[in-house]
Amino acid sequence: MNAKQKMRHILDTLAEMFPDAHCELNHSNPFELTIAVLMSAQCTDEMVNKVTANLFQKYRQPEDYVAVPLEELEQDIRRIGLFRSKASNIQKLCRILIDKYDGETPSTHEQLVELPGVGRKTANVVMSNAFNVPAIAVDTHVERVSKRLSIAKPDDSVLEVEKKLMKLVPKEEWTLTHHRLIFFGRYHCKAQNPQCEICPLLDMCKEGKQRMKPSLSKKPVKRVAK
């Protein structure tokens, strides 16, 4: 099985496991998604959704975020990890949207990555989910799964993982593959205690096969009759 065939098998298996995989960050427009993804760094989507439930009621457009003192915004998102730096980036980002884009969220990758707090991953998520432009965002789940299934090498950078996925996955499947890899990593192939014993992709996972090998130390010791 060559690399393309192996990837096809992985994609088909993930499709069976998670046919309805989707972006789990609650949002109603590109601007809200940008704010939500920015806050999701080193934080769970579940916690972000709890915070944005009230945040998106209070702040509906960039002007609302810059109209309050930074300390107030910090308090509004203080349950989010790194809330101080994220609050600062949100206000800086909103100021740029107002001054440069008439309050609208830019729709190109190049423009998005220039915004404070928006890296390549965040831009890819916004492009694919808000503007329907095919993209593969490599978060911690996508990186872990890609390396465990030998799609990428253990020492590959996040960008190298992204490039390898883009090469092996058909472009029209990039966005859906991103979501399915996340679901697989979040709910099945977890960082701790992955479900190797019921994994349909175990044969492709060196780490999983190693985990499933019975420990030699647990084998019963034969006693010699005296």
From TrEMBL:
Lineage of producing organism: Bacteria, Bacillati, Bacillota, Bacilli, Bacillales
Organism per entry: Paenibacillus algorifonticola
Function as written in the Swiss-Prot or TrEMBL entry: DNA repair enzyme that has both DNA N-glycosylase activity and AP-lyase activity. The DNA N-glycosylase activity releases various damaged pyrimidines from DNA by cleaving the N-glycosidic bond, leaving an AP (apurinic/apyrimidinic) site. The AP-lyase activity cleaves the phosphodiester bond 3' to the AP site by a beta-elimination, leaving a 3'-terminal unsaturated sugar and a product with a terminal 5'-phosphate.
UniProt GO MF annotations: 4 iron, 4 sulfur cluster binding; class I DNA-(apurinic or apyrimidinic site) endonuclease activity; DNA binding; DNA N-glycosylase activity; metal ion binding
Keywords attached to this entry: 4Fe-4S, DNA damage, DNA repair, DNA-binding, Endonuclease, Glycosidase, Hydrolase, Iron, Iron-sulfur, Lyase, Metal-binding, Nuclease
Co-factor binding details: Binds 1 [4Fe-4S] cluster.
NCBIfam families cross-referenced by the UniProt entry: nth (TIGR01083)
Xref: HAMAP family: Nth (MF_00942)
EC number: 4.2.99.18
InterPro entries named in the record: DNA_glycosylase (IPR011257), Endonuclease3_FeS-loop_motif (IPR003651), HhH-GPD_domain (IPR003265), HhH_base_excis_C (IPR023170), HhH_motif (IPR000445), Nth (IPR005759)
Cofactor(s) required for function per UniProt: [4Fe-4S] cluster
Residues noted as binding [4Fe-4S] cluster in the record, renumbered to the chain: 189, 196, 199, 205
Family classification: Belongs to the Nth/MutY family.
GO biological-process terms attached to the record: base-excision repair, AP site formation
Protein name: Endonuclease III
Name of the top EC class for this enzyme: lyase
Top-level taxonomic group: Bacteria
Reactions that this protein is recorded to catalyse: 2'-deoxyribonucleotide-(2'-deoxyribose 5'-phosphate)-2'-deoxyribonucleotide-DNA = a 3'-end 2'-deoxyribonucleotide-(2,3-dehydro-2,3-deoxyribose 5'-phosphate)-DNA + a 5'-end 5'-phospho-2'-deoxyribonucleoside-DNA + H(+)
Domain HhH-GPD intervals: 39-187
Gene3D superfamilies linked to this entry: Helix-hairpin-Helix base-excision DNA repair enzymes (C-terminal), Hypothetical protein, domain 2
Pfam (any one): EndIII_4Fe-2S
